[in-house]
Amino acid sequence: MKFPIAVVSLLAVIQSASAFAPAAFTARQSSVRTNTASLSQAAEGSSHNVPGPPYAGPQFKPILDSIKSPADMKSLDMREIKQLANELRWEVLENVSKTGGHLSASLGVNELTVALHYVFDAPEDSIIWDVSHQCYGHKVLTGRRDRFPTLRQAGGLSGFCKRSESEYDCFGAGHSSTSISAAQGMSVAKSLLNKRKNNCIAVIGDGAITGGMAYEAMNNAGYLKNRMIVVLNDNGQVSLPTGTQSAGGVIPASQLSAYTSNLLVSKPFQDFRDFAKSFNRLLPENVQGVNKRIDEYARGIVSGGTLFEELGFYYVGPLDGHDLDNLIPILEKLRDSPSSKPVLLHIKTTKGYGYPPAEQASDRMHGVGKFDLGTGVQFKTKATAPSLTSIFANALIDQATEDRAIVGITAAMPGGTGMDIFGRRFPKRTFDVGIAEQHAVTFAAGMATEGLKPFCCIYSTFMQRGYDQVIHDVAIQNLPVRMMLDRAGLVGNDGPTHHGVYDLAYMGTIPNLTIMAPSDEVELKNMVATCAAFDDGPTVLRYPRGVGYGVEKLRDFFGYEFESDEIPKGQVVPIGKGRIIRRPGGMKTEANGANTRGRERKDRVAILSFGTRLEESLIAANAVEESDPNLGVTVADARFMKPLDVDLVRELADDHSVLITVEEGSIGGFGSHVLHFLTLDGAMDEGNLKFRPMVIPDTYFEAGTQYEQYEAAGLNARHIKGTVLRLTNRIKVPVLQEQD
C-alpha cells in the first residue's frame, strides 16, 4: 500500500522523535492524562481554595480601587492581575447578593474578562459578549463600578451590554448566538475603513454556539477569511438547568457540547504538535514549508480534524480559562499575529467559579434573587400561590397522563418553561433541542404530521426567532402545533430584550392560528386542556411571568365557586368565545336586573380585557362606580384574539357608549383586531361609540419591577379608571398649547 508523501514524511518525523527521545515522547503522551486531570480539576472550580461557610471576600480591594478604566490595568504585573481578578470576583458577588441578577456566568468568565481588558485596547478593540449576561465584571472594569449597586433597577445599569450605556459596550445583546456575526461585521468594516487596529473578539458560550446563527456566521467567516477571534467559553451548561430529564437523557442538550467535551479529554496531538513545531524550526526553510503541510495533514489524521478547522478557523485549545499565566500570553500572541485568518480559542471554565454555593447548585446559581453572601441561600418570600409556569406544567401533565400523544419541547429553557417539571414525569416525552427556536418549531411540525400533539414551549421574546417557521412550516400547512408562550408581556428586571410584548402583533397577522390568553390560573388550566383537545390547526397560548392568585382570591374577587380548596383540572372552553365577568353594579349583578347604574347608554362603559389585565380592569371598574353613582361599568374577558368573539364585541358595542380594550401587548395586537372588526362591521359609522385601545406604548421599557413597568406603560388600574372618566367627560383633559 502506498502512502501520500506527506504521510511518509510524518511517519519519519514520528520515528525520529521516538529514536532521539523515546522517554521524553512517552512522558509527553502520559502527560495527556495529567493535563486532562488538571483541566478537570479546574472544571471542578476553586471551592477548595475558598474557606467557608461563611464565605467572604477581601476586606479591601486596593487594585480594583485603582482601576477607573481598562487603561489603568496595563501597568499591572501578573501578581497584581491575579489579585485584581480575585477582587473583581468578590465585587460582583457582593453587589449581586444585594440586587439579584445573572451571577454565575460572570463568575465563570471572571479571569477571561480581566485577561481580555489587560491584553486588548477596548473600546478601540471590539469585545462582544454573546447574550451578555456574563458582562458584570466587564461593567465594573469599564468605569461603571460606582453605578453597579443600581444593576437591573429602574434608572440603573442594564443587566446586559447596552451601547447607549457605555462606549465599551460595542454591541448590545440579551438573546444568544449573535456575537460572531457582529464581530465579523465589525472586522470587515474596520478593514474597509482602513482603521489602524482590527481586533474583534466574540465571547460565546457552549450553549449559545448551538444556535444556528452562530454556525451561519462561522461558515461565512471561514469563507471571507476576515480577522477575528472567537472565544468559545465551554462550561458544560447548555440548558437551564442542565440535567433536566428528557428524551436525550440528562446530559447537555447539544452534540456540539459532547464534541467539545471530547476535545478536552483527547489531547495527544496538542502535545505532539508542540514537539513537531520545535523540530520543524531546525529544518531548512523549504523543508519547513513541506512540514507545515504535514502538520495540517496530521491534524486530520491524529485528531480526526475539528469542526472549527473545517469551517476555516485556526483552532487553539482547549485551555484552562481560569489560568491567567497561560491565558494572557496566548491572547497576546493572537493579538499580535499578522494573520487575517479567524481564530477559535477554546477555553474550559466552570460556571460560578470561585464561589462554592454557585459551583454546587444544579443551575450554578445562573439567575438569582438577593441572597446571603456567607451561605449562598437566597432570600425568597413565600409565594401566596404557585407560579403560572408551574401551573402550566402540571396542567400539561394532567393532559399527558390521559393522552400519550402529548409531548413537550423546549429550546434550552426547561426551568423557565416548566419542561423540567414535565420531564420528571415524562422524560421520554420531553425534548430539549438547545438554543434552537427555529428547529424547535419545525421539529414540532414534523411531530404533528405523524399524529403527536407537540407542545412547543418557548418564551414569547425567543419565539421571535422562529417566526418564519411558524408561518412556513406550521400555519400554511395548518398543523396542530401547540405553541406555549411563557413570559408574555412586560417581564421586569431583564428589560427590553426579554419583554414578550410583540407576539400578539406578529402572530395575529398569520392565518389559521388560534390565539388565546388566560386571565388567571383557572383559565390557564382550561386553555391547556383546550389546546390539547384542538386538532384542527395550530394554537398559541400566551401567559405572563408571575404567580397565580390563589384559591381564596379567586373565590372572593373573581367569583369562582370551588368544591374544595384545590383548583380543579382544566376543562375545554369553546373556541373563540369570551365571557362577561362583571356587569354594572358589581360581580353578582344579573343582566337586565334591578341595577340603577348606567340607565342611559351614555353612562355605560365596557372594558374588554385580554389576558391578566383583567384584575386591574375589575379594580378600575369598582373605583369608577364608587366615584360616580350614575356610571355603570361592564368588564369582559375576551379569552381569544383569534378567532375573535364577534358576538361579544357586538353586544358590548351596542349596549355601551364607550368600549376600552386592555392588553399586555404592543400596538398592532388585540385592540387593533377589535377596532378592525368594529369598523368593518359598521359599529363606528354613526359616531356614537368611543373606542380606546390600551396597549404597551411604542417604546422600550428598561429594567424595573413589573409593577413599575406597567405603571410607566399606563396599564394599571388607575390608568384604566382615568381613561373611563375622560371618555365619559367626568374629567377634562388639558389641552397642550404650542409655545411661541
Q: What is the straight-line distance between the termini?
A: 94 Å
Which class of secondary structure composition applies to the elements? alpha/beta
- Strand order, biggest sheet? 9-8-10-11-13-12-17
C-alpha geometry: globular
Mean pLDDT: 86
CATH architecture of the largest domain: 3-Layer(aba) Sandwich
Pathway: Metabolic intermediate biosynthesis; 1-deoxy-D-xylulose 5-phosphate biosynthesis; 1-deoxy-D-xylulose 5-phosphate from D-glyceraldehyde 3-phosphate and pyruvate: step 1/1
EC number: 2.2.1.7
Keywords: Isoprene biosynthesis, Magnesium, Metal-binding, Signal, Thiamine biosynthesis, Thiamine pyrophosphate, Transferase
Subunit structure: Homodimer.
Give a description of the structure.
- This protein is α/β, with parallel strands linked by helices and 740 residues long.
- It folds into three domains: 62-290 and 304-360, 3-Layer(aba) Sandwich (Rossmann fold), CATH 3.40.50.970; 388-558, Rossmann fold (3-Layer(aba) Sandwich); 579-728, Rossmann fold (3-Layer(aba) Sandwich), CATH 3.40.50.
- Helices cover 42% and strands 14% of the residues.
- The protein contains 29 helices and 19 strands.
- The strands form four sheets. The chain has a seven-stranded mixed beta sheet, sandwiched between helices.
- Pathway: Metabolic intermediate biosynthesis; 1-deoxy-D-xylulose 5-phosphate biosynthesis; 1-deoxy-D-xylulose 5-phosphate from D-glyceraldehyde 3-phosphate and pyruvate: step 1/1.
- Homodimer.
- It is an enzyme of class 2 (transferase).
- Its cofactor is thiamine diphosphate; Mg(2+).
